[in-house]
Amino acid sequence: MRHFILCFLIFIGSLTVLAHGDKDHDEDESKAADISSVSVPANPTYHEHVRPIIEASCVACHSDGQIAGYAPFATAEDVVWAARDIKFHVVNGIMPPWMPSRANLPLQNDRSLTDEEIAIIAAWADDGAPLGDPHDYAPAATDGIAPVEIRADLTLQLDEAYTPPQDVLDDYRCFAFEPNIDAPQFITGYEFIADVVEMAHHSLFYLFDEGAEGAIQRRDYADGRPGWSCYGGVGLASEGEGIGGWAPGMSPVLFPSGTGFLIKPGQKIVVQMHYNLWGTNQPDQSRINLQLESAESELAELIDFPLAAPVEIPCPAGVAGPQCDREAAIERVANLYGEDARYTPDYLLRECGQSLEDYAENSGEKAKGYCDYPITGPLTVFGVSGHMHELGRSFRLELNPDGEEPLLLLDIPLWDFHWQDHYLFVEPLQIARGDILRMTCVWDNSLSDDPRYVVWGEGTSDEMCFGTLLALKP
Fold it and tell me: How does residue 3 score in pLDDT terms, banded at 50, 70 and 90?
C-alpha cells in the first residue's frame, strides 16, 4: 500500500484532505451486549429456544469440513458441552464474528445476534443448559430474502493446486489471474467457492492494470509454488483496486443494480488468500465465479476511493533504545521497501495538514492516527472498508462527526487483523459537498513481540491506517 498516493490522484477531484481538531474522542472498547433488561422465555431449553439460533447463525462454520470444524456443533451434546464458552463468546460479541458495532449504519449480511438471542443463550447456559424435548424444535424464521444466484460467466482458478508450507499456522498467499477477455466488461457480482473450507479463513480480490505485470511475474512461482507470500498486503507496488472479498458464511455478492466494476483486456485480478492451518494442511484450488456484463451496457461504474492517515506509534512504557527513535523507524522502512517508503510518513502528515506535534500525546499503549476529508462534490456510497495490521485496536470512519447528525459509517471497536471485510450498506448513502469524513485508527504497541517506533509500512510488523469507500465513479 505504500504507493496508495497514485490512487489519490484519481481521488483528488472528489476529496481534499484536512486535519481535524477534535482527536480525543473515546473509543468504545467493548462489544459486550447489555442484556440485563431483556425479557427471555422462562426455563429456556436447547431444542425449543437455543437450537434455532445455533443452526441459523453458527453451524455454517462450526461443522465438519468448515473453518470452525475443530469445534463442531454436530449434535445437541456438542452444544451443551460448550454452553458456558458459547455464552462467553456471544455475550462479548466475539461470535458470530462480526466486527462492526451496533452503532454502525445498517450493513448487509450482518452476522451478529440480537439482544434477545444473546439473552436466551445466556439464560439457558446459566440454567445448566437443559436439552428439552426435540419435538419442540422449529427452525428460525427467515426474512424472506431469496438466495443470491451468480452466473458463472468467468471462473478464476489455479491450474495447479497450492499447498501451504508445513511450518506455519497462518499463511497469506497471493495469486494472479488473467481474465483473458477481448473487450471491456463489467463485473456485476461474484461467488467465492472454497476448495478446502477447513483452512480457508478469508480472501480479498484486487484489480491491477497492465503496469503490474512485471512485478507479478517476478513474484509468481519465485519459491517454486503458485503465487507468492503476501502477509499484510499483496506485496506489489500498489494495492490495486479492491473489488470484493469473502469470509466463511458469506453468500454470493451482487453489486447494486445498474452498477459494476469495469475490467479491461490486459488487466489482472489478484486474489489474496488467508489460510488458517490449525486443523489441516491440504492442496487448495479455490475458485471465484464472476458475473459479467458487456461494457456496452449502460451501467454506472463503481470505484473504491482510498483514504489514508498518518501512523506514529511510540514504544510502550518500559521499552527504550535506538529502535524507539522515529528516524530509525523511517530508515527501516526505506531499507525494506525502497526510498519511496522513506517519504510516506511525512507526506501523510503534510496531506492531513498535521505535524508531529499533533501526535505528541500518543503513547505506545494508545496511539492514534487520524485525518479529515472535506467532500468537494456529491458522492453515492454503497460500502466501506478499513485496514490496519496486528497492533490495531479500533477503527472508525465517521461522517460529520462534529455536526448535529453525525453518522458512523464503520465502527470497529475491537480490531482483529484476521477478520477484515468489505461492508455494504443496506441503503446507499448520499454524501454532499461540504460534508466531512473522519477516519481514526488506534493501536496498542504493547501487543508487539518486538516493540519499536512504528510508522506507515508495507509489512505486517509495520502499520497502516487505510480505508476505502465503494462509490459511483464521479
Answer: very low
Mean pLDDT throughout 405-423? 88
Q: Is 336 left (phi over 0), alpha (psi -120 to 50) or beta?
A: alpha
Determine the Cα–Cα distance for residues 290 and 253; give it in Å rounded to an integer. Answer: 10
Cα–Cα distance between 104 and 296 in angstroms, integer?
37
Q: What is the pLDDT of residue 144?
A: 45
CA distances, 116 to each of 37, 43, 122, 229, 345 (Å): 10, 14, 10, 43, 46
Q: Are 199 and 279 in contact (CB under 8 A)?
A: yes
Cβ distance 173 to 275 under 8 Å? Answer: yes
Write the burial class of residue 411 (CB in 10 Å: 0-12 exposed, 13-18 middle, 19+ buried).
Answer: buried
* Cβ atoms of residues 307 and 373 within 8 Å: yes
The residue type at 257: S
- Predicted pLDDT of residue 2: 32
Element (H, E) at 344: helix 339-351
Is residue 236 within 8 A of residue 215, CB to CB? The reply is: yes
- Could you tell me the pLDDT band of residue 337, with boundaries at 50, 70 and 90? confident
pLDDT, one tens digit per residue, over 350-392 is: 999 999 999 999 999 999 999 999 999 999 999 998 988 889 9
SS3 state of residue 471: strand
- pLDDT of 26 above 50: no
In contact, 188 and 270? CB cutoff 8 Å: no
CA distance 363 to 313: 7
CA 78 to chain CA mean position, Å: 30
Q: What is the pTM of this model?
A: 0.77
Spatial separation of the C-alpha atoms in residues 86 and 125, rounded to whole Å: 8
3-state secondary structure of 156: strand
Query: Average pLDDT in the 178-195 region?
Result: 94
> Whole-angstrom Cα distance, residue 128 to residue 421?
36
Q: Is residue 261 classed exposed, middle or buried when 0-12, 13-18 and 19+ CB atoms within 10 A define those classes?
A: buried
pLDDT in the model for residue 143: 53
Q: What is the mean pLDDT of residues 238-245?
A: 81
Non-local (6+) Cβ contacts of 141 within 8 A are none
C-alpha cell at 241: 483496486
Specify the 3-state DSSP secondary structure of 424.
strand
Question: What pLDDT is recorded for position 95?
Answer: 87
Give Cβ neighbours of residue 242 (< 8 Å, ≥ 6 apart).
Answer: 204, 205, 206, 207, 304, 385, 422, 468
Secondary structure of residue 22 in the 3-state scheme: coil
